[in-house]
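Hi both,

Apologies for the delay on this - the queue was longer than expected. I finally got the fe (ii) ion-bound model through. Below you'll find the protein sequence and the ligand SMILES exactly as submitted, and right after that the structure tokens for the full complex including the ligand.
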Amino acid sequence: MSIEQTLTDSERLADLDLDRLRRLVGLVEYDSAADPFPVTGWDAVAWAVGNATQAAQLFQGVYGMEQVAYSGPETGNRDHHAYVLRSGAIRFELRGAVDPASPIADHHRAHGDGVVDIALEVPDVDRCIDHARAQGATVLAAPHDVTDEHGTVRTAAIAAYGDTRHTLVDRSRYTGPYLPGYVARGSSVPPGPRLFEALDHVVGNVELGRMDSWVDFYHRIMGFTNMAEFVGDDIATEYSALMSKVVASGNHRVKFPLNEPSPGRKRSQIDEFLDFYGGPGAQHLALATGDILDTVDVLRARGVQFLPTPDAYYDDPDLRSRIGEVRVPISELRSRGILVDRDEDGYLLQIFTAPLGDRPTVFFEFIERHGSLGFGKGNFKALFEAIEREQSRRGNF
Ligand SMILES: [Fe+2]
């Protein structure tokens, strides 16, 4: 059995098939037998937030996610609340401290709301950890079984950039709502239409001069491959710049662009993130949707703030020659501030939200792919100009 034929547990639950996933997030065939660290796909993204109880309401009521599981004082977890939400194949776990001595409270004090764990579903936890350990990874949790009445999960964890970790999960022998210790809990807000289907990529911001060592980490320890490379002028504006490289799991389910600041005349958005997050961390999560216009309309009506796109972006005489024909008139994109980019494989539509929390750190991207396997390289300059206008307004530029 080769891994590209395997759906993750959450993809199966979302009724996604490989064709639909290929359109949503781009997949490639590959030989998992030759992969020292085979990854099936995303398992969950765990967040530490200042108020998980309210965040769970927000993510349901605004972002249209469905609540599926819970852990907290009522279930014997006296340390924190954890709400597990889904949208399509995406699973978020929102953790908030109950006990003032909880490590989640410390994490929140240091970083504000943010991503603590990008958990991956793997077919063989022990094989991954044996390889990672031999390559010098920091193993935060050795492979072990966790069991409840729904079965057994085998899991382990390795350290990634900053205080971020990758938990590895083999849930092939488990049928419960999430993980042992969590109970099924349905939505507390009436469910609406699903606004996004799958996680496309998670961007990590790392310190100046550390991008290549993190690219090497994903190559050497996790068997990831290079996907695309954007360096220097491609994404420089007059005032600031960044360097970015993208690594992906063998099947391209899991894609990690890694950014580092590049010296500019003024402070870059990566510097601002590093200052306010207190070090490296997950900068944005790209959520794949089949209809970005509808997604943006619903979210805007619910009060979500998106980064403004300069009108000049749509008036650019080169825009048409750069993007060619797309599925809707440019006026439909302009009225919503949606960006468009094209490469040799097709095009993509994308838009970025304002930071989700109080600190100017983590945010969402919504992305609708039409063949393009890129990340919107042609839009970086437009995006950066938009972000820098926001930074100026906050006085951090
Ligand atoms: Fe992105």
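Main takeaway for now: Residues 198-394 form a domain with the 2,3-Dihydroxybiphenyl 1,2-Dioxygenase; domain 1 fold (CATH 3.10.180.10).

I'll put the files on the shared drive as well.

H.
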